[in-house]
Design a protein that fits this description.
Elements lengths: L2 H24 L2 H4 L6 H22 L9 E4 L2 E8 L8 E2 L4 H29 L4 E4 L5 E4 L3 E6 L3 E4 L3 E4 L2 E6 L2 H18 L4 H7 L3 E8 L2 E8 L5 E7 L3 H4 L1
Parallel strand pairs: 2-12
Antiparallel strand pairs: 1-2, 2-3, 4-7, 5-6, 6-9, 7-8, 10-11, 11-12
Helix pairs in contact: 3-4
């Protein structure tokens, strides 16, 4: 190869090197974290399965992770959301803010899980020579019309050859739980008012809705479900015993 050819190759190689260095300077996140852990993906993968399990347990137990006043049915402790110990009287509402109670229960149960995920994330980065910074955070969980959202809003900063900050890590779950909780609240209000609830009216107005009412031992168990998403919310009431005799 003549000198002119060698010079051409060197020029091309130099241009490529300069180009790569320029990209790293302008967009350091492109290469600094290549083939490394992504905090957003890691946190989602770590938290989501546990979050889904917690939601399932709460939905099976009247919105309580550890029910206090409950009726046992099919190995589940189903919380009374409307209750009275006397006969022939409407029940007294035990949980007027059902949606908020559900959200608060999720946060209480998922917080140690999420903190554990953050601790494990730090260990994983430390083993690769990175420095990871995060601040203690309060997590958020909201039940919306068509989805549930878990949010970790405080930044996670990763440092090595460059710095990258991750904010507002969200886990979104498609869900119709909002409707189930609102309808359950309405049923509870009926129980407290007249001692029973006419569930057929709800199913006429909501084609995707299914309500099963199970009466046993003076207790009524409601299973409120969505036929499309297969989600189900179960709770118990104890009102006038008269309705269980008719």
């Amino acid at each position: 190869m003549n000198k002119r050819g060698q010079v051409s190759i060197f020029v091309i190689v130099a241009i490529v090197i300069v180009g790569v260095i320029s990209l790293l300077y302008v967009f350091p996140q492109i290469n600094v974290f290549a083939e490394e852990i992504n905090p957003t993906s890691y946190m989602r993968d770590c938290i989501k399965p546990e979050l889904e399990d917690i939601i399932y347990v709460l939905s099976s137990q009247g919105g309580y992770y550890s029910p206090t006043n409950y009726h046992r049915y099919n190995d589940n402790k189903i919380q009374y959301l409307c209750y009275i110990g006397e006969d022939y009287k409407p029940c007294i509402i035990q949980q007027p803010l059902l949606k908020k109670k559900f959200e608060d229960e999720v946060i209480e149960q998922i917080t140690p899980v999420a903190n554990g995920c953050i601790a494990n994330l730090k260990k994983a980065y430390d083993s690769r020579g990175y420095i990871i910074e995060s601040v203690p955070s309060e997590f958020e969980f909201k039940i919306g019309l068509d989805e549930m959202v878990f949010v970790y809003s405080d930044p996670i900063t990763v440092k090595k050859e460059g710095t990258q900050t991750f904010r507002n890590i969200e886990i979104e779950l498609e869900s119709k739980l909002y409707d189930l909780l609102i309808i359950s609240t309405s049923i509870i209000q009926e129980e407290a008012s007249v001692g029973d609830s006419e569930t057929l009216n709800y199913m006429r107005n909501y084609p995707d809705l299914k309500i099963v009412k199970i009466r046993r031992e003076g207790t009524t168990i409601y299973e409120v479900s969505n036929a499309i998403t297969k989600e189900k919310f179960s709770f118990a009431t104890r009102s006038s015993v008269l309705k269980n005799i008719i």
